[in-house]
Amino acid sequence: MQFALFLVTILGHVFLWIGIINRLHSTAIPRRIVFALSLICSALIGIAPILAVWWWFAGGKNIQEQINWQTSLQPGWLAFFLYVVSCWSAGAATFVRWICYRCLRRPPELLRFHRQRSMAIAPAAAAMTAEEHAHHISVHLPGNESLRLELTERALEVPRLPRPLDGLTILHISDLHFTGMVGKAYFREVVRAANELKPDLTAVTGDLVDKAEYINWIPDTLGQLTARYGVYVILGNHDLHVDEIALRKTLADSGLIGLGGRWMNVEIRGQTVIIAGNELPWYAPAADLENCPPRTPDCGQLRIALSHSPDQLDWARTNDVDLMLSGHTHGGQIIIPLLGPVFLPSASGVKYDYGVFHAPPTILHVTRGISGRQPLRWNCVPEIALLTLHAPR
Predict the structure, then answer these.
(1) Burial letters for 205-230: b for 16+ Cβ neighbours within 10 Å, e otherwise?
(2) pLDDT, tens only, 144-177
(3) What domains are defined for the chain?
């Protein structure tokens, strides 16, 4: 019994600090501080269980013989007991969430259709320089899926979608992370594959460039995206690492429509569609939708929001948004069979890993994204998502 409780405590310890790391990366705390704190948490995850096992076999299993009512009130022992209880609580909460995630989670009823298929990524070497094909050695690790690409197609029933907009298609792309670790040729191919889908709208939801020298990749990559009613873009937390003014100017000069902190009307099939941007908590403010045209009796004014983080779902619901498109999570990048993703930068943990979620009146779509600061992906293929919106039957 004691050994079982000991193992539960160790597992709870691991879950507790993984949860802290996930939530650190959902905040606007400066990158260096987040990185330092994440290293400390990672060290605690790895070192503490080793020390605990050593302590257990060195006599810790006889802890009951060492404790009496007097020693249990000493500050050191009291702190120890409180931490053990915290680990048990974290373990229990994680187990409940895992049950909900793996066993009870069902696709929302408004998801009419869902399929995934691999897309060919084969850039023509003759058309590009050798430098554009250069990838970091980690990209070639066994099983790493960073150079693959999937198309995810989903049909969504949007409760207040005006009938003339039935069949509207939105291409959702996110998290390209231009670091130089994945060559430019790969991103060219992603754009080529995206354009072949001929979407009505294209939404790019942040984390575009990690290093300033790769801002100049934008005209040849994202700048080549096409969509019938425009390509819209917001920034994410990794875009803080470069010159914001230069990045936004390059995006605008390349034909992308920036929605950082604002909303705009777009006329589509004779209907007014409101498209808004939310880059919180990294760039303030979010679009102020209080002055949007009011809803009409026949639904009217479809509202679409681009938010880098799914943590802004409450903002979307408060502002009566019909569809919010987000990235940031990368789907976890590494998905463990049966267990699922473990590290995921969200204040909600792994709840909004990727896929479709319904929190009336808002439908949330989270994409796994294209890349990451560290291009490591196992069981989590990069994706572009094509959403087709339908009015209620």
Answers:
(1) bbbbbbeeebbebbeebbbbbebebb
(2) 999 999 999 999 999 999 999 999 999 999 999 9
(3) 2-104 (no CATH), 111-390 (3.60.21.10)
